[in-house]
Design brief:
Elements (H helix, E strand, L loop, with lengths): L1 H46 L4 H18 L2
Helix pairs in contact: 1-2
Length: 71
């Protein structure tokens, strides 16, 4: 009985596994792009003396997002 259930449920497990993998990879790519953009904005704000506190916090946030994407 268990073998029949495994045979019937195999295509569903395969489809959901593929969809889950695609969503995970897409999320990592979007997170990496977001982290790079935040770092670039942070560097641009840090160049101006007035925006330095905001720029430094953006750089730190971007670095943490990049670290979170690849762990």
């Amino acid at each position: 009985m268990k073998l029949i259930i495994d045979i019937i449920s195999f295509p569903f497990k395969l489809v959901f596994g593929i969809v889950g993998f695609i969503l995970k990879v897409t999320g990592k790519i979007i997170g990496a792009i977001l982290g790079i953009v935040l770092i670039a904005l942070g560097v641009m704000f840090t160049i101006t003396i007035v925006g330095a506190p905001l720029g430094i916090s953006l750089i730190i946030s971007g670095v943490f997002i990049l670290i979170g994407c690849f762990l």
